[in-house]
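[09:14] KT: can someone run the structure on this one? pasting the chain below
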Amino acid sequence: MKYTTISIILVIAFLSACSVFQKSKPGVNENAPVPSSAMAIRSNTSLDTLQTGHGVYMRKCGECHTHLLPDEIASADWHVVVPGMAWNAGITPSEEDALMKYIIAARSNR
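[09:31] RB: done, structure tokens below
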């Protein structure tokens, strides 16, 4: 119950971010892990998929709010946040899948 409540609160907060905050200026989050061959091997995900996910993360996530680093939210919570944000950002299901794989791989990369 507590986990569900926290997840719902996170989703509502993220979904409302675009309407509440001004859009952040485009820029590179230098702390965001860049996909590498080692990351691909550790996550059992292709480097192309991780690069696609990283591109979506850099391009779309910062349009409405500051980039949240993958380590800032628990893996289980990303599974709730990403679908809501994907719909809000207008990304395709394949981009959403790549984004989720990148975030989980980036979390385990640290």
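[09:33] KT: thanks! Residues 2-20 form the longest helix (19 residues).
[09:34] RB: yep, looked fine to me
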